UniProtKB/TrEMBL annotation:
UniProt name for this protein: Monooxygenase-like protein
Binding site for heme: C441
Organism: Canariomyces notabilis
MF terms in GO: heme binding; iron ion binding; monooxygenase activity; oxidoreductase activity, acting on paired donors, with incorporation or reduction of molecular oxygen
PANTHER family, alphabetized: P450, PUTATIVE (EUROFUNG)-RELATED
Length: 512
């Protein structure tokens, strides 16, 4: 049956005509409802997709970070509503509104933690049931934010630093180790990976170096796993990788090594709370599986970017070295670096911040639990409706030229050295590399110290040759935070590390 032509319409009886008009109107109304949903005028301004209904969804699926950055560049909206299929997403771009969102008690991360736990961790069915209970989640999550502070933080940091020092001291003549490192980028990844795992899991650390590629496979697809759509079909390698890591963790938890005296409080307390809540040791490898990958997924790319930016600029190496020397006690053939001081040195801390500004594009997502009003710096208010998804990306703030100036896309640590108060005011709330509010990254101080100590020690006592800046800056994998360096054609540069003259036999140690 074809569509009615106009001349056929005129031949219809009045009743049939009325029914046809009513049916067409209904179809148009439904189409309008589907394609052009209406919004409360107090909600953030609506940015309709060019292709109704599916436009934003397709662009988001192609690369959410890049899409939101482009929308912000084109439209410069402090906050907007994106109609996505039959739903909507609020996207925030203003530092003041993001700070307000982070402080808000009615915007919650919990539904996403549950979603992540149910879909990405590979939990057993009884464990899944527990994770659906908000009280369980609250109790089990408590140690996350209390175990990387004060003395427990100092201990885990020192453990990581001791491992870093051993690897650094293995380079050099007469040490019984290697004379030089000839593939330094891989070396950096390996050394940091092992230091972090050893520091977290203690002497019986079950996460050996060969599991690093599995962590890499998992993080590539973790965003897809979280969505829970056909994981076996879309992310089979990530599932294999997850299972390999969990198999390595199983004997560790079964033997109770997680309660060992040299295990970090971060691993020990989290497992202890869960054991108390009745969780079987056999379920801990899945239940606490977020630990190994969150600990390195952003830490290792951060280390690489800092390394690349420092060692492609001899003047930066000199400035960094001068500050490391201020924090170092040299005695005979030993050098003890006080790593706790490095992150406070003006140039070193500026380099770390600038590296995060350039390459941290961590996304945050919150669920609106109750209708919520957020107020911007110009006092304009926006209503966020209950049961809606709110998102923002660090990269939009970190690379905003209205905030950072025309050179926002250039690595320039001096913007953080002696910044004038007017500049600082403009930047308020615009640096969120570690998130904020209730879910502020608990590993931030550990990561800063390990990274600055390793790069600082290299600047102090080693010559680094062959460093070439990455050709491509790749967006982060979904659900991770750091952009990634990539080199064209010839692959990664072959970087050499060897001892500086006069530092050949100096034994490096770190304190915190
Ligand atoms: C340079 C390195 C790191 C960066 C840039 C980074 C970044 C972040 C960001 C942006 C968040 C917040 C996500 C949100 O608000 O939704 C976060 C959360 C988190 N990070 Fe990190 N992180 C780093 C290192 C670490 C390390 C070393 C650990 C563990 C030892 C860690 C453990 C965590 C955990 C457990 C959370 C979740 C906190 C919660 O949900 O309450 N991170 N991280």
């Amino acid at each position: 049956m074809g569509l009615l032509r106009l001349e056929e319409l005129s031949e219809l009886s009045p009743v049939a005509l009325a029914l046809t008009v009513a049916a067409l109107s209904l179809v148009l109304l439904v189409l309008r409802w589907v394609l052009y949903p209406t919004f409360d005028s107090r909600e953030p301004p609506v940015l309709r997709p060019k292709v109704p209904f599916i436009g934003h969804a397709i662009s988001i699926a192609r690369g959410i970070n890049v899409y939101y950055a482009r929308l912000h560049k084109d439209k410069r909206m402090p906050i907007c509503t994106l109609p996505v299929l039959r739903g909507k997403v609020y996207v925030i771009n203003s530092p003041t509104l993001i700070s307000a969102a982070l402080r808000s008690k009615t915007l919650s991360f919990d539904p996403f933690i549950t979603l992540f736990s149910l879909n990405a961790l590979g939990l057993s069915e009884p464990e899944k049931e527990r994770f659906k209970d908000p009280d369980y989640l609250a109790t089990a999550s408590k140690p996350i934010h209390t175990s990387l502070l004060g003395e427990p933080l100092r201990m885990v940091t020192q453990a990581g630093l001791s491992r870093l020092a051993a690897d650094l001291n293995a380079i050099g003549p007469g040490k019984g180790g290697v004379k030089e490192v000839s593939n330094a980028l891989d070396w950096l990844r390996d050394v940091m990976f092992l230091a972090v795992m050893r520091a977290l899991y203690g002497e019986k650390n079950p996460i050996s170096l060969d599991l690093q590629t599995h962590i890499g496979e998992f993080e590539k697809k973790v965003g897809l796993l979280v969505l829970g759509i056909a994981p076996r079909l879309l992310a089979p390698k990530a599932l294999v990788a997850r299972s390999a890591i969990q198999q390595a963790l199983a004997p560790y938890y079964l033997a109770g090594h997680d309660q060992g005296p040299d295990v970090s409080a971060f691993v020990r307390n989290r497992a202890a709370v869960k054991r108390k809540l009745g969780i079987r040791a056999a379920d801990l490898p899945a239940s606490d599986f977020d630990i190994p990958w969150t600990a390195v997924t952003n830490t290792i790319p951060s280390l690489l970017w800092l390394f690349l930016h420092i060692f492609t600029r001899p003047d930066y190496v000199d400035r960094m070295r001068a500050e490391v020397l201020e924090a170092t006690a040299v005695t005979g053939d030993g050098a003890t670096i006080d790593a706790s001081k490095l992150g406070q040195k003006p140039f070193i801390s500026a380099c770390f911040l600038e590296m995060q500004r350039m390459y941290n594009d961590a996304g945050s997502v919150r669920w609106v639990m109750e209708d919520t009003v957020l107020r911007d710096a110009d006092r304009r208010e926006y209503l966020l409706k209950k049961d809606t998804n709110v998102q923002w990306f660090g990269g939009v703030l970190h690379l905003n030229d209205h905030i950072w100036g025309a050179d926002a896309g250039t690595f320039n640590p001096d913007r953080f050295v002696n910044a004038d108060p007017q500049e600082e005011k403009k930047r308020r709330g615009a640096m969120i590399p570690f998130g904020g509010g209730k879910h502020l990254c608990p590993g931030r101080m550990f990561a800063v110290t390990e990274i600055t100590a390793l790069i600082g020690a290299l600047a102090l006592a080693f010559d680094v040759e062959g460093v070439e800046m990455a050709h491509v800056v790749q967006p982060p994998f979904p659900s991770t935070g750091m952009r990634r360096p990539r080199w064209k054609q010839g692959g990664e540069p072959k970087v050499n590390i060897r001892r500086k003259r006069g530092w050949e036999d100096v034994k490096i140690t770190f304190t915190v």
